[in-house]
Every structure is written in structure tokens, then in C-alpha cells.
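Re: folding output
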Amino acid sequence: MGDKIFLLFFKMLEEIIIMHIQLYLDMLIKWALTSGLKIIFVVILMILALKLVDNFTEKLIKNFVSSNYDSELEKRVHTLRTMTKSILDVLILAVGSMIILEKLGINIGPMLAAAGVVGLAVGFGSQRLVEDLISGFIILIGDQIRVGDVIKIGDKSGLVEKVDLKMVVLRDVEGSVHFIRNGKIDIITNMTKDYSYSVFDTGVSAKENIDNVIEIIKGIGEDLQNNSQHKHDILEPIEILGLDKFNDAAIIIKSRIKTKPIKQWVVGREFNLRLKRKFDELNIQIQ
């Protein structure tokens, strides 16, 4: 008797389990044919969108760099590409994830509200970072400075060792390194963009023959331009700007030489050395 009751109970339990399994299978199939397909479709679209962004930005970079080859410009464009791709990837994943959660029956309203509060808090904390990124983007896209330029920012000047979306790194003539946030940059003075000038203020006694002094300065500039060591650094012949001003016992003759970027100091030092030797030879005193 006990065995029959046990078998009957086991049979009923088996039927209940099968019925529930069948019910859940039916629900799963129904969900898979409706929301499930939509979720799969959304996932496929997300993958395709991510791939499309990657291919599009990469192709854009290759076309741009191949037609405008410049090693530093290439680095700058790659930085912008990475930033743009990251923003688009996050946007695609965020939108796709919200759609999937909604299809799973999860109310995303409270999540969006919570995300808004968290985003507001993070926004206040990351305000400086956002400011740096925006300023860095403008600096990069505007091609204002490059690695290897000599620039001045505020009271700091030096050789640009690194420039990215967050900061500019300068090394001054003493070897000190300055890290400057992009968000703090107001005015950038680039002393080596495209070309440079080495400017000379030559002071001599008012008793000297000005025309002779000008010819001497011009001759030194011409000799320097014909010198095998420096001729490739000089872009144009020396320009005599004329008698610039009077001092107590001297007159100042201003001149300049146009040079390749960052070469103005090398050319300027060599010019001053030759000028001093020539003036000593002719007994012309520098005032």
C-alpha cells in the first residue's frame, strides 16, 4: 500500500515538473521569438556599429596621412582618432545596453535617474579634466604646437617634449621639466613655427660711419649664408631694418636673418661671434 502511494506521489511530481518545464520552455521560445530576437538584433547592430567606427576612423587616418605626411601631424591625428573612437564606442555601448535592459523587462528609469545623480557628482569632480580635454582638443586640431617646438606659456618657456589632450610638457634650457595643464593655457607663444628670425640690435658709437657699419653687418650675414655649416639653416639673406634708435652714446642698428625653425639661436650666436671679431679687427667698439 505504501509503495503504491509513493509511486503515485512520484508520478504526480514528475508530471508537475514536466508541466512546469514545458511551460517555461514555451515562455522561453515565445520570448526568444520576440524580445530575444530583438536583443540579438541589437547586439549584432552594436558589433557592426563598433566595427564601422573602427574601420571608418582608421581609413580616414590613412587617407589623411598619405596625402599630408608629417610624423608629428600623424601622431596628432592618431590621438584625435583614438579620442573620437572612444567617445563613439562608449555612446554605442551605452545606448545598446539600455535597449537590451529594456527588452529584458528591467525598468531603466531609476537607473537613469541614479546615473544622472552620479554623473552630476562626477561632473563637478571632473570639471578640470573636461576643461583640459577640450583645450587639448583645440590645441591639437589647430596645430598650434608640435613636439620639438620652442614655446612660451605664461612665465614658462622651453622645448615641447610632449603634447596630448591633458597637458603640455616643456623642458627649459636648464633641464627643468614643466607640466602645464591644457585648461590653464591662455596664450601660447610659438617661437619655432614654420620659420624663425634671429634679430640683432648692434650698438656702435655715434661717431662711427653708419653706412660702413651697415655694410659690415650685411657682409657678415652674406658670409654666414654662404658658409657650408650654416647655409642650410638660413632661409633668406640678412635684412637690414635700419637705424632703430639712439642711446646715450650709441646708435642701434637693427637687422635680422630668417632661419629654419629652432635654428635662430645657432645662427644668432655665430653671427655675434663673427661680428665681434670683425669689429675688433676694424677697431669698432660695440656699445
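--- second protein (sequence, then structure) ---
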Amino acid sequence: MSPNIDAKIVADNIKYIREYAGLTFVGFAEAVKISISYLRLIEKGTANITYKVAKKISDFCEIEPDSIFSAKALKLKKLSQIATINIFYTENINNPQYFISRKGENSIAHFLKNVLLPSGYLIDYREVNAIQAFCKSEYNKDFTSKELSRELNRLADDKKLLRFDKYGNKSIYLYKCND
């Protein structure tokens, strides 16, 4: 078999394992202790994988290392039966960026809809810079004013927020909850 075919087989197997485990690139890289960039290269088929890395991955999902290099379909246990994956989930419950099913929890939209709006902070009109400072000080969320403005505008378009043009020249908007 040529190296390119081998790399493609490995890439497909690693991606299958990662997605089967329900992990993002960040989560899987953390779980098997390799860099995110190296994992991306492996999944693209542009980097060779060492046996040592294959062993780390196989230990994590409780399979034989050689199966990662095999063209045969991988046979993985049910997730509930793979102790290492269950331990990883338990130990990282507060890291939503690790899990495919929880990726959205790190988004600005998710934060605004599920944290900021229910908090009552936007009961009065607020400027974007004040909202930005509040998010940073109270929730340690460091959003740029541009990305925050974009999401606030979307919420206003969806009628979840009221938007007021402070000076009438579309330079500064104020936002508050639409009761």
C-alpha cells in the first residue's frame, strides 16, 4: 500500500474515532495529549502518525493500536462501556468546547440568550461598550465590540431585544430586553 493510502486510512479512522467519541478537535487532542494542529494534519491525511500516538489513541478508545492503521472497519464498544471516554467526559464536564454536542455553549449567541438576557442586566438600555465591560467583569467573557454588536443586532432583529439609535446617526446603539 502506498503512504498516501495509508495516511487516508489512518485519517478516516481517527476522524471516525473522534466523532464516535463525540469530541471536537480541542477535546480529542486534550484527551490523547497531542496538539490540535497535529490532529488536524492527521485527519487531513497530510501528517504521518507514529505508533506511539496510535497507542495513545487506541488506549483512549480501548482498541488495538494496529486497528488504526487497518482498512477494515473499526469495531468500537458502546460509549457507555469505554471507561476512559466516560472518565474524560466526567472530568471535563465544565469544558463545553471539548464536546461536539456542546460546541454552541461557547458561542456569543448562546451566552447572550441563555446567560445575559435572563440575568436582568438589560432591563435598561445599555451601550455595547457597557455590555462588553459587564460580560468581561462578571462572566470573564472577552468579546470584541464588533462580534457583540453583531449578535445584539441579530437579537434585535429577532425581537428579543429593543435597539435604540442614541444619536440618530447609526453610530451608537443602545439595547434592552423586549419585555
